[in-house]
């Protein structure tokens, strides 16, 4: 069995991803996370293809610690989620990350207004 056969294939197409709306009152954490250039670059990498933290770090030429930090923050605001496991050439299990939503809209009206 090859490493490619052990790796999960993408099961969700871009068109099938959820679209989310967040009210302006609930968007502080989301906007704070997206203010980071590195976080937006991480999103761009996984948008192309589900990736492991080390693959993202290599692609962006940043440290694995920086990628892990941003992945954790992006998960907290529900933009990225682990979607499977990939195995390294040494047999080490690595989480595979993908976008959890296709788009996010911020609703500028407060509830009840």
From TrEMBL:
Transmembrane segments: none annotated. SUPFAM superfamilies: Winged helix' DNA-binding domain. Residues 1-12 have a biased composition (Polar residues). Residues 1-22 are annotated as: Disordered. InterPro entries: ArsR-like_HTH (IPR011991), WH-like_DNA-bd_sf (IPR036388), WH_DNA-bd_sf (IPR036390). This is Transcriptional regulator. It comes from Halorubrum halodurans. The lineage of its organism: Archaea, Methanobacteriati, Methanobacteriota, Stenosarchaea group, Halobacteria.
